Fold each of these.
Amino acid sequence: MYDTIRYHVIPPAFVVFFTGVVQYLAWSGRGASVDFSALWGNEFAWRFLGVSFAWAYVSLLVPSRKCKGPVTDFGQVPEYQDNGTLYYWATLVTFVLYNFFVDKDLSLKIYDNFPQILGALNTCALLLCVVLLIKGRLSPDVREKTVMKKFPIAYEFYSGKELHPRLLGVDVKQFTNCRFGMVAWQIFILAFFFAGIKREGFNYGFAVNVLLQSIYVAKFWWWESGYFWTLDVALDRAGYYLCWGCLVWVPVLYTFSSYFMVAHPPLTSPLISLLIFFVGLSAVIINYAVDREKEIFRKTGGECEIRGEPAKYIDVEYVDEKKRLRKSKLLISGFWGTLRHLNYNFEILAAFSWSCVGWHHGLAPFYYVVFLTGLLVHRVFRDEEKCRRKYGKYWEKYCSIVRYRMIPYVF
Ligand SMILES: NC(=O)C1=CN([C@@H]2O[C@H](COP(=O)(O)OP(=O)(O)OC[C@H]3O[C@@H](n4cnc5c(N)ncnc54)[C@H](OP(=O)(O)O)[C@@H]3O)[C@@H](O)[C@H]2O)C=CC1
Ligand SMILES: CC(C)CCC[C@@H](C)[C@H]1CC[C@H]2C3=CC=C4C[C@@H](O)CC[C@]4(C)[C@H]3CC[C@]12C
């Protein structure tokens, strides 16, 4: 029963549901009813995507320093282009300059053609998932155990076949997640903000919404090399969930509060907006600090200081897929000694902060927060299942020291 749901029901149901929701969001966000003709895109949308994809692709080809991700159970060490921060700032500055000096209506055009852009993106993303499925089945880069095993086709399409596939000389997940998804998030919210100014004038609430998200996204680039060690990159395979998710779902849902605010400007006063800004900023900073603490701990092999004292940890052992015994450490001081997923709490608080400037308009500005909360609670279980399988009794020991996941005494 569980396997039927997991392999046969959820994948097709999610593909249909999420692909459909995109159409709803694209139109409801501007107060219009769904028009399916946008699914094919239009000339502007295809040109916009052509340039964006080419720009992202070139950023992964130009000579640059490289960084490595964690070694997989089957001994592969993925290699990434380490020029994310430069790419992010170059894209941002180019977009702003182009918008102010070359095409003053660019942001409005992006806003007006957003459903068409999403339609075209959806086509490209689905095509990519088909290519990844065929490549994974016929000619995977690495012939490891899981990739060689046959699962139901809908499941393979949804979850992906390969862990670190490369296409046209670039790492697919770095392209979809980092080079496209995270930059699209930044560029779209900025375009919506400029479009909002053109239509309704400057709005403090809207400014706080976009500024907080921009700080959040900019922070991502400082930490990009840390991202390569997360579940998405180390565990999730390249398929609909991750690649379609980053190519389409991130651009539509993660930016939705800003998209919505163009047609529904926030009514929060400048003072309240400022207060919300400081709450949101603190949340982004703490979220980053928690991630960073673990990153430094891992990079130094545990030989680092946390708040002026040597890091406290427990030594753990695990057996990898090749049956080799490996050693590692789990941090139990600093942030990681308080709750097992403290970073998620501040992730949600940050998103709540930038959404709540639009609270006068009901639930719509909070769609992302609702999704994020579900995603992160589900991720807590996925992550802990992974850790329990990996570390066994050592994970139980860690859980007995750091007892709660996200809410003290409750969860
Ligand atoms: N906006 C969004 O949609 C989302 C944002 N995020 C954000 O991304 C960031 C990364 O999140 P995510 O990858 O989910 O998870 P974490 O950064 O919480 O990483 C979890 C992993 O860290 C290792 N770990 C767990 N506890 C310890 C410890 N005490 N000491 C050392 N290592 C430990 C384990 O991996 P190992 O096998 O190495 O031991 C575990 O699998 C967060 O800021 C999160 O908020 C995450 C998901 C969605
Ligand atoms: C069924 C699908 C619609 C669901 C798609 C989900 C994915 C798009 C997202 C799953 C995990 C997300 C992320 C994880 C960690 C991140 C680090 C953070 O600092 C920035 C955001 C992100 C890259 C984020 C992006 C979307 C997911 C990959």
Note: The chain has two domains: 1-266, 267-411.
Amino acid sequence: MSTLSFRGQVRYASGATVDVAFDAEGGVTALFGPSGSGKSSVVAVIAGLLRPNNGLVRLGDETLVDTSRGVCLPPERRRVGLVSQDHLLFPHMTAEANLRYGMRRAGPAPTIGFEQACAVLDLTELLGRRPAELSGGERQRVAIGRALLSQPRLLLLDEPLASLDAARKGRVLACLERIVAEWNTPTVLVSHDQAEVRRLADRVVVLDEGRVIATGAPDEALAAAGPLSWRDETGPMNLLRLEGVTQCDGAWTARVAMQELALPPLPAPPDGPLYARFPPHEVTVAPPGDVGVLSARNRLRGVVRRTVEVGGAVFVAVELSADAETSLWAEVTPQSAATLGLAPGAAVQCLVKTSSLRVGS
Ligand SMILES: Nc1ncnc2c1ncn2[C@@H]1O[C@H](COP(=O)(O)OP(=O)(O)OP(=O)(O)O)[C@@H](O)[C@H]1O
């Protein structure tokens, strides 16, 4: 198993600096962060497309970059399989020829065979087609297959799902899950999608403004990184993984941290993991105990872990009882935070209207 040890500093002429260090020991390591946080710079340094001003990058016992000794291996000698958003398949070659091109770069004792890769990535029907005759998701699967067949010591996936719609995303995600389970090739996944990260990653490195602001298991690292990193395209967003989703008399419910959550109606029984998304400003914080009759059906009990003031609002991280791994953010005014005594250790309940929840994969 190749461990990636990354230390790199890049200073751009624009004044932007990326200064990042992390270790990735097998499994899937996600680089997560908002736009401009430095993810692509780190990928480019690992792949050999960008030489850092200072850096020491090692993969297993091989040194890819050591600026102090003037070492910077060219991309083709790194055995890093890169799949990026603009999957660069050869347009004049069929899917099969693209895949076999990947195999030409493999070492003498391949561990991943052609038929096996086609089966896992669902490519068998597509082999005779050229890239222009494939959908975005199909092209992405061929690109992943080609990278895998080159027997990389490290798979580098740079936002592999970014340009796909929800259905195609689900299909490629399922393929990635199978790849991880089948071969356990050490993988670095770049993403700004929390759900993707939680589903695939063993550990997360959260970047912001060119620095590492948290690392650890997905829930832990994302919670530690604070509300500004818990974003989707619409702004700060909570994301809770739902367990035991069931329907009874037309009402859908699920469990989160051993507590019950009432869900809005779902079109169909879930196929794969489901998440509830809701913005922190949709959460009402109340003291524990009876708060009387309210329209909000969801009352999640927890303990305040920390508070962060951002732009005149107070974001409160609440660790849900019975599962300290799961937390959510509530946004309140400084006045409410003071009145309610929202400080670390305070017991609270978080009221969330069912209609505020968006449920999806
Ligand atoms: N070629 C360049 N010249 C000057 N500045 C750059 C260059 N490439 C990146 N930067 C700056 O370096 C910082 C990190 O950028 P980087 O592309 O690594 O971030 P990112 O997290 O990959 O962003 P995105 O999610 O938008 O791709 C940003 O401030 C960016 O403006």
Note: The first strand starts at residue 3 and ends at 11.
